[in-house]
Write the structure tokens for this entry.
Amino acid sequence: SIITHVKNDEKQIEISNLAGSSLSMVISSVFSSTEKPLLLICNDKEEAAYYLNDLEQLLDADEGSKRDDVLFYPGSYRRPYQIEDTDNANILLRAEVLNRINSQKKPALIVTYADALFEQVITKSELKRNTIKLSVGETLSLDFIHDLLHEYKFNRVDFVIDPGDFAIRGGIIDVFSFSNDHPFRIEFFGDEIDSIRTFDIESQLSIDRMNKIDIMPNVENKFHEEKRQSFLSYISSKTVVFTKNPQLNSNRLDKLFEKAKDAFKNLEGEIKHSNPEELFCTGKLIEDQLLDFTNVLIENSPSHKVSKSINFDTLPQPAFNKQFDLLIKNLNENTDQGITNYLFCDNENQAKRFHDIFDDLDQSVTYATITSPLYQGFTDRDLKIACYTDHQIFERYHKFRLKSGFAKKQSIQLKELTNLEIGDYVTHIDHGIGRFGGLHKIDVEGKKQEAIKLIYGERDVLYISIHALHKITKYNGKEGKAPKVHKLGSNVWKNLKQKTKARVKHIAYNLIELYAKRRLQKGYAYREDSYLQHELEASFIYEDTPDQLSATEAVKADMEKDQPMDRLICGDVGFGKTEIAIRAAFK
């Protein structure tokens, strides 16, 4: 019914009685069936993030759609007239959405919230005019691209790590656009672009080859004095807008706008700034612009007139308080009423835990497990399905996950290299200990390339390509004692490595002998996990991390053998070692 009304472009539709993640299922069905762009406006960032994860999972399972079509549009975290307070991860996500809309690719499902809509965005014409488009085979000079990136306030560095960075080495330009998860590597042959690839900032290895790319500057910073428009006036008029609590969102926007006006008054007479009306949106402005779209109102207030109301018959997931007899009773009651039970689990271990608990209780239960996390469970009495979540049954915290592609763990070599100072000692795996001589441009077959200079004994110099970073590390030795630096090509380092290998082999031989004796000893073999064990483990309120799961399984496997146990659990403070110990102690 709702799909029909959306296809017919009815302007104001109200849907009600959608409990838990049943809303996510409705939205994913509408998106898959109508081939129209969708916008979901939630109450706040946390709620938006949970629905985003739901939609990613549901559309990932749908053969006709991809989770790549689900995009998150957050606020920049910029306080009014405080440009420096932006968050790079959020700027990248916002730019990704603007670029997707501007590129006119297939429809996307965008999830956002009031605070994000509050900030106006650069106009389409300005974005198009200031987006750098490059393609393989195009003729451009390196100097021209350098000047262009500098004009757009990209930051020249030795190695790109964050959006807005760029580096030039010989005939290669690395640049991190604000609209892409990975930086681009553009290789020139003379003044012609020979190849374009995305690459991983950790390994420096290529990911995908590209024929055309768009390089987008920081649209939240460079263009703060340019003409701006509301995000709603930016998106396609064909967009179907789902709004949760429209009146609440409108009030939230008005409060934010009042704060912006106060901040503007405090700046009067200091520096010339754009008026709040030119930079931010009021609740009234958003309400007026929403009238141009097909609106689906959720948890609507009576003040909003609608042309069609659709009522669903869903109930929120019951609270079981970790009492599995109540859960079993409820599941069996559902089965008697012709309702199919689905248990949505975060991982395979949680699904197995349900199976083990029901087996230990020796209870007959009809259900199916789905290894896919869901925000909140519900029962749909029309569709005759009950979708329950493991985290609500076990009363665990359920975390949302947001993409922040550039904020990966940086390569340790990159971190160390940027912290090195001239004269610091470094170790090269092949040549031994030398001193860091800085980054230098050297001529390689007629091309200028950046290399790392290492200085050895008797003024020997070694230049290392930046692509061989994995071979060098900062020297760590006894504090206050300088290491010996030998001549390049001498046998000292080679002999030291051979001596070290021999000592490692000796230690290994002794360990093997020790563990061979240990295996001959008999220890106490503990039983497999019981119902009580599963109940204890279900009582922890936080979901296990993958490392906790694997460590716990390894400990239990050791305990169930009849050989003496010898295992050490290592981890940083607060990473959950005690939980593993409690599981083992209880067993």
